[in-house]
Structures are given as C-alpha cells and as structure tokens.
Write a structure and sequence with these properties.
By secondary structure, the chain is mainly alpha-helical. It is 48% helix and 6% strand. The protein is built from two helices and two strands; from the N terminus they run αβαβ. A two-stranded antiparallel sheet has the order 1-2. The longest helix is centred in the first third of the chain and has 22 residues. The chain is elongated and about 40 Å long. The termini are far apart.
Length: 62
C-alpha cells in the first residue's frame, strides 16, 4: 500500500499512514453497514472516492 505514496520525509510518511488508516476504517464501517444510515462527505470523501487532489484533517459525516 505504501508504494503509491511519497515517503521522503517523516511528515509525508505520517500523512500516508494516516490516509491508509482512514481507508481501513472506512472499509470496516462500510462492511458493517454503517453507510446505510450515514453520509460520508467533505474533503476526505472527495479525495478517497473521486481521486481529487484535496487534503482534509478530519472525516465529515452526517
């Protein structure tokens, strides 16, 4: 999973690991049926679901 990320600095490595962790958590929530009752939106959703070059610190949900 890490091969698609720039790991040239400690900060970039931290960001890559945080993004991978977000994806793992979102996958678990999806498999548990969470998104049948909730909506995932915002900058993180745009980046993960649509591949946009956008960074967000949090996960927006409603």
């Amino acid at each position: 999973m890490l091969e698609k990320y720039d790991l040239s600095t400690a900060d970039k490595t931290y960001e890559a690991l945080r993004e991978i962790l977000q994806e793992i958590v979102l996958l678990g929530l999806s498999r548990a049926g969470f998104f049948e009752h909730a909506l995932f939106y915002g900058g993180t959703a745009l980046r993960i679901l649509h591949g946009l070059d956008r960074f967000s610190e949090d996960l927006d949900r409603q």
